[in-house]
Write a sequence for this structure.
């Protein structure tokens, strides 16, 4: 009887200790009461950067709810309706798409404008913007660029009649695309111009079916500079799309250290680094969570 009682007490003590250890484990994972709802847009770069934000916030002691894969057309609405607390946004998108303001091409002026207007209209704070700029651009086959000595869009305009253009649907028509380009640089009298599906444009260049195509400046395919060259927009026709965290004021006021955590991430991102990260997912077919974790571990 005496031995049985000892056994019961021992079991109860083990259960109590296990409970204590479990509680300690949970405490280590989430040292703060606040749950931060991190949103992301539904494409590689949005997912990557949001996952990096989430990892950094978890490291700072927050519990994170990942609300990922939100359509770009509704993610801002999700933020101001309190469905998410923060997500990475682009300054150019904020200026032109969300605020509907006139185009500005100076990065600092764009940032200051969206920061002021978001605060006034939505009670949302733009934290520091990164040097990473996912804007419009033009990519050319590197072999052709080297043969003709093309480094800038001005160089390209001079050689347009020797080049085959792989357009992307409405690029020829949209006011901020080819029309804006020709207004600033002059006409582009292409040797030929055909419309190709956006998902195939780099294959079209790789297969020598065209020489030049519209691009986004952090496309993963541009990491291979032996194949493709991103041309310098030397006259500044397109607005900057610098990446920055946007956070609801209410959440930031209650958790002010979020600013330091996410600003540290912004300071490490530039266009080249973001292109490399996108390439690992879109070209090398790695999982975005793995790429984000590897990058975050490298900057901790």
């Amino acid at each position: 009887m005496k031995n049985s009682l000892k056994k019961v007490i021992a079991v109860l003590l083990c259960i109590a200790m296990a409970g204590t250890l479990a509680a300690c484990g949970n405490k280590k994972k989430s040292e703060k009461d606040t749950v931060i709802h991190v949103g992301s847009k539904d494409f590689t770069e949005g997912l990557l950067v949001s996952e990096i934000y989430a990892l950094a916030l978890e490291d700072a002691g927050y519990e994170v709810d990942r609300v990922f894969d939100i359509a770009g057309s509704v993610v801002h609405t999700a933020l101001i309706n309190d469905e998410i607390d923060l997500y990475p946004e682009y300054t150019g998108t904020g200026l032109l798409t969300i605020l509907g303001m006139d185009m500005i091409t100076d990065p600092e002026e764009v940032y200051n404008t969206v920061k002021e207007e978001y605060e006034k209209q939505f009670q949302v704070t733009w934290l520091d913007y990164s040097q990473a700029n996912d804007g419009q651009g033009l990519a050319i086959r590197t072999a052709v660029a080297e043969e003709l000595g093309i480094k800038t869009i001005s160089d390209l305009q001079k050689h347009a009649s020797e080049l085959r253009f792989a357009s992307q649907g409405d690029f020829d028509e949209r006011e901020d695309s080819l029309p804006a380009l020709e207004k600033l640089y002059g006409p582009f009298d292409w040797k030929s111009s055909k419309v190709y599906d956006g998902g195939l444009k780099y294959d079209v260049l790789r297969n020598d079916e065209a020489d030049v195509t519209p691009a986004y400046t952090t496309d993963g395919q541009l990491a291979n500079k032996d194949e493709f060259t991103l041309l310098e927009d030397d006259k500044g026709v397109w607005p900057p799309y610098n990446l920055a965290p946007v956070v609801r004021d209410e959440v930031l006021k209650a958790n002010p250290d979020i600013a330091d955590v996410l600003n540290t991430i912004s300071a490490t991102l530039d266009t080249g680094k973001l292109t490399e990260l996108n390439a690992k997912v879109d070209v090398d077919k790695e999982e975005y969570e793995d790429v984000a974790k590897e990058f975050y571990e490298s900057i901790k």
Remarks:
- The chain is about 50% helix and 15% strand.
- Residues 35 and 63 are 5 Å apart (CA to CA).
